[in-house]
Amino acid sequence: MNIRVVIVEDEPLAQEILEEYLVEIPGLQLVGKFYNGYDGLKGIQELAPDLLLLDINLPKISGFELLELLDAPPQVIFVTAYDTYAVKAFEVHALDYLLKPFTKERLKTAVEKARERIALKDMQNLERVTQDVQIDSEPLERVVVKTGAKIDLIPVGDIHYLRAEDDYVGIHTAKGRFLKLKPMKYFEVKLDASIFCRVHRSFMVNLSQVIRIEPYEKERYRLILRSGIEVPVSKSGRLRLKNALG
Q1: CA dihedral sign of residues 54, 57, 59, 63
Q2: First vs last Cα of the chain: how many Å apart?
Q3: Full domain range(s) for residue 183
Q4: Are residues 95 and 146 in the same domain?
Q5: For residue 53, which phi and psi values (nearest 5 degrees)?
Q6: Cα Rg for the chain, rounded, in angstroms?
Q7: In this predicted model, what pLDDT tens digit does every residue of 27-43 receive, in sequence order?
């Protein structure tokens, strides 16, 4: 079986080395190579490769952000110069993570692991790994959202509040509402707790947007945001809010 491969790597020399090594591994077909996350995303969607060789620190959008935007991600071998992205999480889930510089033999070993996964069609593995790494990596500075063919990069400081909507979270900003396929718990863990507070099972707010807290039913409260939006506060949310505001 021929494995269709795409490379997304911003360093020309690293791309050349990868291509040189791949030529010597039987059963691989390099169908595309890209230098940034935007072009890589578009190329992967058009070419539908079986295997992706992916750098993490890319121009425009990162390797992790690129994976979040793919509806049907291929198997992935991460290729990076940094060892700070939860390497053990990849190893536990039997995907691979190559630290530059690496040898041809090391890449071949990684490709053989991926070949086995492709044969087994074990695509759930990738989802578990990307989720683990996102939780373990640095706090969010921005959220990447795809709407049709459009990609929006939302700085977390622009978020007024978040609302759980079934399997999605609605991200509300001055520019409108954006949907992200993530659980609310993800944002609760990833957003700075000194700035964002989960005040209800379905709501998190940017504390800088709160102008007033007022009762509206017996022992129940709501927040009034600068935009005029009213956000309910649960009993446990009120305690978290109190602690956050000191």
Answers
A1: positive
A2: 61
A3: 142-245
A4: no
A5: -100, 110
A6: 21
A7: 999 999 999 999 999 99
